[in-house]
Amino acid sequence: MVGAFSAGIDRDRSVPNGAPRRTMDRSERRRQYLALVARDRLHLAISCVKYRPIMRGEQLPFRWRTRGGKRKKAGRKPKWPDRRPNAPHRTRPRHSAAHPVLVTLRARGGLPSLRDVGVFREFREAVREARHSPAVGDAFRVVEFSIQNDHAHFIIEAADGDVLSRGMRGLAIRLARAVNRALGIRGGVWGDRFHARALKTPLVVRTAIVYVLMNARKHGLRLASGVDPFSSAPWFSGFATDAERSIAPTPTLAADTWLGSVGWRRRGLIGLDERPRAPD
User: Fold this and answer.
1) Looking at domain 101-267, which of 3.30.70.1290, 2.60.120.1680, 3.30.360.10, 1.10.60.30 is its CATH number?
2) Distance from CA of residue 203 to its chain's centroid?
3) pTM of the prediction?
């Protein structure tokens, strides 16, 4: 660029024809070039100042803002502040077919109680229909369940993590439609993604069965016969004493894993007076 510019500078038109031209060394040519660049920059700065009033906006000061991180009150907020936080949206752990899973589905706010005879009738049929789902077939099994006022508990067996996800998606859709039919409403029923916990030992499986079938006692409800009618307890065969049984066809499937069928029984059958506690 300097060479091209200097070529133009050497043509001094004020020198008469035939007169020798004055030559400049490299440093002088560069001084003239920098002088012209400085002049152009000055003209540009003057133009910016001259036409500043027609600019549409002012540049705002930059402020550092952070998102996430470990700080007070950070993280995903619950949809309803008066309820417990939603299940975290993180990658679920790898599922093993040998381990039953304790699953919880929570209803959205504003719905009537799910512990209604009409709701349970539709709910029970939806659980029965889930056994014949073409997407998962016998690879997804609902072993036990119970309904509370605003949530439902299940013990599920699935062949792998993908079957568990697809099976729970189909089951949640069937149950939502059943609740809508029973209550005569429309729209979503579940307010959060399902929470799942693997049951890896016989004692933990037994504790989870008590937790599901006797969950009404945890919420202060009295069971006259010791069996919760809004659960699969009327079809359960693992009570230590005779219990009231339903004559209707069972909506659940028998456990297929060793932990769900044989292993937990080695820790003792379940008494009708037992109270639930969360699996350790």
Assistant:
1) 3.30.70.1290
2) 29
3) 0.69
